[in-house]
Each structure stands twice: as structure tokens, then as C-alpha cells.
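step=encode ok
step=design start
structure_in=
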């Protein structure tokens, strides 16, 4: 339901004769059940330009008329003749506004369905919009629409269902994006649609801002000022600090200075208004009181009063709320005068620059002043903007002296009149935190990967350096460590396990299902700790079943030379490590095998908790023998077997031996067979253990002969 709630444009126009601003809530609310698409329509683009409005006399042509559509019978019209009623029963069910919204662009309420996207052929901006960012009109549009239908006086109750015409609980605003703000939209290297956020429908990063008028209202009420008019104050505020007790005047001053707000008092009421909302009064030559010399006395201050620089200090929302400074310079100034402006306001660099530029632009015209006299009946209020006869530009009333006539002092103001800043903070990537939490190093000796595998637990995470045995590595992502929540039973290694399903708890990652070929080629790999070491698995089917909890199915088991570490049952509670990121390999010389190593960690100069691990070089551990058989040779037995090479090896290490043991003896064999002095049928257990000169002993296998 992207209903237009305004028909606004620059300059003089019909709606501007009744309302001062497009941001006027009463104006927008009036057009919910009124205005374009309800009371009238434009028959052509030319009519829209000229504001020639054609009335709508029959409610069925009002596309915004929900009330009549809901409360009347529906009759098709064929050839202009009403037919019998359809099956629709008036008031039989409520409306669901499943999509409402307004782009954050100037005059967005004129045509709220449009969006700006350079990659789309449907990209456009609303009627008469200049395309600038305007978060305030988006907020006002939503406040008007949601507030209007949320009022029971506007939302009738059905006599059939006893439910409201519009079920406001089902109203959904487009769009709240699941991507984290401000990384979206700031990180355009990740999300290419980031630039569209600036004038798009997104409410991320916008709903937390507050109308300036609301802040000023609170300040006035807290100080006992109840009769104030803030209807002329527009714009949004990201943050405002009052750091000590102060007068309301002192608290309000930064807002007045930053947003070009003027204050007048009439009949005991304070009126706050942005200069851009003030009406312009034209003073004719005929109304000027004749004075000695010319009717208007113009003066201009010396060049030496010009400002060269305006320096603005503010709280930078994009830099962890640190104080920042920005400046604007008049390169033509012949002075060294500098204006210092310190604002306890949260804003971004774009907004701060706009305010500094405005101050500089205002200072130069303000050197020009004018004095004139008017009859008392024509006197203007302080702050009134006027146009003088035969004089270019705008002037503002700065001083009044009343006697038999009104002596008026005016100052020149920039042309055009400064538009209030209605955008919001420009999103930027989150900063690396200055505070460094303690890093905790973890080390793993995983099969299938050379050296030690190192990771770091730290929140918030920062890149960390890990060192041991005279070598260092850097890890730039946090370790993803979790736990097995359900037991995992033994299955045949290296074949698809379509029976098992396990739950793991791993809160610091995000996984999803992938194709079986991708799982086979290193996708969704996890290491699960067993009493023998680590079993490496892959999961093609991954489902999020709870907060930080994933269900893994369609598994590949015993990967990366880890089948010898498999158990009949791996109990719940076993550690689980994700292998997709957060682990780095520390290459170690073979001389360190069998030693306990300390792995130190430091992050941004802060030392963390070291890890200690015994290095067994699991990647070099020989694999267990397969296809072991026995054959009688006279009074002895010939044993045969097939050795296995490691995944990364082209062949079995020729230096590998097999330790063959039985109760009464042992031999060390090479190759793929050996004869032992044991007679077949003796019911004796013979154990065969592969031995590697570097990797040590593998998993023993037993055969009864």
C-alpha cells in the first residue's frame, strides 16, 4: 500500500497555500483519506505540472478508499452498468497492509513506491524530487500512516467479525534488512546494493534517530515552558549530550545554531522555526516611511569582519562517538578571523560539513544590513524574512524599535534560503575497537594437516599473532569452537552416512546445506575430538535448529587420514572445531615431535593466554594395515597385509616397518608379508602395528590364528 500522501514541490503551489511544510503531520494525515487518489487525480503529466486536479466523484475509482471498499457490496460494471453483487460480504475480514513504506528521498511522500537503483530499469525518483537524501520524510510518512490507522476513531470495527477494518498487527514496513548495520550499506565490497540505501526504503539505521522537535519539546517542558510552538522545526537527531546542569537556553543553543532555528515570542508563546519554513513577506515601496535621505539605508561592514574559517567540533557517529573536527574555508577572505563552533551533537562528517558550510555562507551576507521605517500597522515580527523593493535577495528582521513608526533593522541572508539537514548519519564500516580483550590461544594436532593448527578465542576479535618454536603466524579470523550435543555412532569411513544425524552447538558461525560434491571437496568440514585424536567429517545437509545449534546429516566420516581415530560411539560433549576458517598451520621441524610446546599469543600488543600441547605430528602417523590375512606354511604361519599411504603421499614410505607381536615373541617386518613361528589353529592373538621412523606407531590391528 504505497499511497501518495503529498503533492509537494518547490516554489508556490496549491498545498503550500495551506501548509508550511511537507513534514507537517496534519498535512500527511489529511491525505490518507483525501488528496490524490481519493478526492482528485491528474489526467496527464501536463495537468500535474499545472496542478489541474480532476475530481473523483465515485468512490470505486478511489484507489486509496479502503473504507468504502471494505464496507460496501462489490458489483462489477459492464458497459457502465452495475451487475449483481459478487460473493464479497461487506466487513467480512480485515485488511492486512503487508507492505508499506516510503523512500528516504526528498518529496518521497509524493510517490512512495519508487526507488533509486542505477542497475534497474525501474529506477526513478518521486515527482518534483531533486533526489537528495531525506530520512525525515520517510519517518513522517510512517508516523502518519501507522498512527492514523492505529487510532480507533479512524479504524472502524466490523459488525460481522467484531474486528477492526485494518489489522494493524499485520502491518509490515518495507524494509528492515537482516544484514547488519552499518556494515550494510557501508561495505560495498560485500554488498553491491549498498549505495541504494541512501535514498531507499530501508529503515535500518534510521528508526533510532529522534525528531529534533521532540528533543526540544522535552527540554522546554523540563524547564517549565509549556506554551511552545515547534511546528516549524524539521529534521532528525542521532544523539545529543547534556553533560552538566545548565539552563534550558544553554541546552537549546547548540540545536538552534546547528539547524538554523529561530525563536520568536508572541503573546507569551515561544515559537521555534527553521528559517526555511518562515514565510517571506514582500515590502512594497509604497509602504516605506519617508526618511531623510533614501527610504532604505544600506550599509556593509568592512572586509576585515569576514570569516576565513569555520571550525566545527562534533561527536562522530561513524568513529565510535569520538570528538571530531571539520572546517570550512572562505578562500577569498582577506582576514584571519576564525569561528569556533562546538556542538554536543552526534552526527556524521557529511552533516557536520553542511553545517560548517552554512555558517560560512551566512557570515558573508550578514555583513550587509539595511534600516528602514514602516507604519506600525505593517510592522513585521522579529525573525521575519522579507524581500525589499528593487533589491535582490532575502533579508531577515533582526531588530525592532517601536514609536510613532516601526524602525526596522535587517540583515541579509543567503539565497536560496538554507534547507534544513533532513538526512541521517552516513553509514561507515565499524571501527576496529581501541580496547583489546584478552586473546586465548588454542592448539590442535589434526590429521591431514601439517604442523600444529592454531586458533584464537577473543571477543571482540582482533588479528592476533601466535608464536612457538621460533616461528610466528597471524590469524585474522576467530576460531569457531563448539560441542557435540548428541552421540555419534561408528559408520564406515569415506562412504556417505545417510543414517546418522547429529546436533552441534557452535554459536560463532553460520552454516547451510551444500551439494554432496562440494562436501566431498572440503566443504562443511568439522573435526570432532575422540579419545584417540580427532575424526574429520563433512556434512552436506546442515539445518539451523536453535540458537547457535545445527543439525548435521548426510555425512562423510573418517576423512583426512582420521579413520583410525573413530570410536564405536563419540559421546555428547566432545569438542567440535570448524575447519572452514579461523585455523592457521604452524609448520614445525620433525625435531619437535614428542615435545610439549607453548604457543604464545598477542593481540594489538597485549599478551594473551598461551596454549600448551604435545606435538605428535598426527599428519605423519602411519595408517593402520588393511586386508590382513594368515596362511599355514608347514608348522608356521605366513601373514599378509596391505599398507596404506597417507592422503598427501604418492606411496607408502619405504622406511615403514610392521611390528608383529604374539605372546611368545615378536619380529619387525618390511614389505607386505612375513612368516612367524606360530602354527595355524593355535588360537593365538597376533598384533600388527605399522611403524614410521618419523611419524611413530599407527593403530595396531589384531588377527587370531
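sequence_out=
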Amino acid at each position: 500500500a504505497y499511497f501518495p500522501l503529498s503533492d509537494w514541490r518547490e516554489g508556490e503551489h496549491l498545498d503550500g497555500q495551506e501548509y508550511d511544510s511537507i513534514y507537517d503531520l496534519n498535512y500527511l494525515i489529511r491525505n490518507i483519506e483525501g488528496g490524490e487518489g481519493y478526492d482528485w487525480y491528474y489526467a496527464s503529466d501536463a495537468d500535474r505540472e499545472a496542478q489541474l486536479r480532476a475530481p473523483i466523484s465515485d468512490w470505486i475509482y478511489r484507489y486509496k478508499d479502503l473504507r468504502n471498499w471494505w464496507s460496501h457490496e462489490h458489483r462489477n460494471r459492464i458497459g457502465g452498468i452495475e451487475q449483481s453483487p459478487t460473493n464479497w460480504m461487506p466487513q467480512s475480514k480485515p485488511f492486512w497492509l503487508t507492505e508499506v513504506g516510503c523512500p528516504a528521498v526528498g518529496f518521497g511522500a509524493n510517490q512512495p513506491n519508487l526507488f533509486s537503483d542505477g542497475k534497474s530499469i525501474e529506477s526513478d525518483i518521486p515527482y518534483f524530487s531533486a533526489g537528495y537524501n531525506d530520512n525525515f520524510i520517510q519517518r513522517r510518512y510512517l508516523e502518519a500512516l501507522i498512527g492514523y490507522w492505529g487510532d480507533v476513531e479512524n479504524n472502524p470495527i466490523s459488525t460481522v467479525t467484531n474486528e477492526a477494518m485494518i489489522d494493524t498487527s499485520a502491518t509490515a514496513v518495507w524494509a528492515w534488512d537482516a544484514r547488519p548495520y552499518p556494515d550494510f550499506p557501508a561495505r560495498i565490497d560485500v554488498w553491491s546494493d549498498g549505495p541504494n540505501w541512501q535514498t531507499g526504503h530501508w529503515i535500518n539505521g534510521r528508526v533510532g534517530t529522534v525528531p529534533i522537535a521532540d528533543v526540544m519539546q522535552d527540554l522546554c517542558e523540563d524547564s517549565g515552558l509549556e506554551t511552545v510552538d515547534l511546528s516549524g522545526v524539521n529534521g532528525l537527531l542521532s544523539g545529543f549530550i547534556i553533560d552538566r546542569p545548565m539552563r534550558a537556553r544553554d541546552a537549546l543553543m547548540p540545536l538552534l545554531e546547528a539547524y538554523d532555528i529561530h525563536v520568536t515570542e508572541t503573546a507569551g508563546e515561544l515559537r521555534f522555526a527553521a528559517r526555511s519554513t518562515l514565510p517571506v513577506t514582500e515590502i512594497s515601496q509604497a509602504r516605506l516611511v519617508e526618511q531623510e535621505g533614501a527610504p532604505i539605508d544600506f550599509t556593509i561592514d568592512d572586509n576585515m569582519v569576514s570569516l576565513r574559517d569555520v571550525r566545527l567540533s562534533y561527536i562522530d557517529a561513524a568513529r565510535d562517538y569520538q570528538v571530531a573536527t571539520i572546517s570550512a574555508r572562505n578562500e577569498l577572505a582577506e582576514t584571519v578571523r576564525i569561528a569556533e563552533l562546538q556542538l554536543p551533537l552526534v552526527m556524521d562528517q557529511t552533516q557536520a560539513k553542511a553545517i560548517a558550510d552554512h555558517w560560512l555562507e551566512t557570515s558573508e551576507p550578514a555583513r550587509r544590513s539595511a534600516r528602514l521605517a514602516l507604519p506600525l500597522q505593517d510592522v513585521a515580527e522579529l525573525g521575519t524574512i522579507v524581500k525589499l523593493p528593487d533589491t535582490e535577495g532575502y533579508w531577515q528582521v533582526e531588530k525592532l524599535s517601536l514609536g510613532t513608526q516601526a524602525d526596522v533593522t535587517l540583515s541579509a541572508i543567503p539565497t536560496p534560503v538554507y534547507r534544513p539537514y533532513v538526512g541521517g548519519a552516513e553509514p561507515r564500516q565499524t571501527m576496529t575497537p581501541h580496547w583489546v580483550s584478552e586473546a586465548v590461544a588454542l592448539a590442535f594436532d589434526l590429521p591431514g594437516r601439517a604442523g600444529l593448527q592454531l586458533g584464537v578465542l577473543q571477543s571482540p576479535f582482533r588479528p592476533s599473532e601466535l608464536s612457538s618454536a621460533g616461528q610466528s603466524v597471524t590469524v585474522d579470523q576467530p576460531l569457531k569452537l563448539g560441542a557435540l550435543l548428541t552421540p555419534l555412532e561408528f559408520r564406515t569411513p569415506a562412504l556417505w552416512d545417510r543414517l546418522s544425524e547429529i546436533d552441534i552447538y557452535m554459536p560463532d558461525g553460520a552454516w547451510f546445506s551444500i551439494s554432496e560434491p562440494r562436501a566431498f571437496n572440503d566443504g562443511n568440514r568439522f573435526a570432532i575430538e575422540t579419545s584417540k585424536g580427532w575424526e574429520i567429517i563433512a556434512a552436506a545437509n546442515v539445518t539451523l535448529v536453535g540458537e547457535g545449534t545445527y543439525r548435521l546429516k548426510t555425512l562423510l566420516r573418517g576423512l583426512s587420514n582420521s579413520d583410525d581415530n573413530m570410536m564405536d560411539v563419540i559421546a555428547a560433549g566432545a569438542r567440535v572445531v570448524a575447519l572452514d576458517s579461523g585455523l592457521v598451520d604452524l609448520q614445525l621441524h620433525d625435531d619437535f615431535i614428542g615435545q610439549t610446546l607453548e604457543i604464545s599469543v598477542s593481540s594489538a600488543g597485549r599478551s594473551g593466554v598461551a596454549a600448551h600441547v604435545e606435538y605428535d605430528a598426527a599428519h605423519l602417523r602411519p595408517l593402520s594395515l588393511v586386508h590382513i590375512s594368515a596362511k599355514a606354511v608347514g608348522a608356521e604361519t605366513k601373514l599378509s597385509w596391505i599398507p596404506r599411504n597417507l592422503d598427501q603421499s604418492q606411496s607408502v614410505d619405504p622406511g615403514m616397518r610392521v611390528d608383529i607381536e604374539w605372546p611368545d615373541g615378536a619380529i619387525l617386518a618390511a614389505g607386505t608379508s612375513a612368516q612367524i613361528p606360530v602354527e595355524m589353529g593355535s588360537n593365538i592373538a597376533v598384533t600388527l602395528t605399522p611403524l614410521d621412523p618419523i611419524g611413530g606407531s599407527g593403530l595396531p590391528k589384531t588377527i587370531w590364528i
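step=design ok
step=annotate ok -> The chain has a mean pLDDT of 91.
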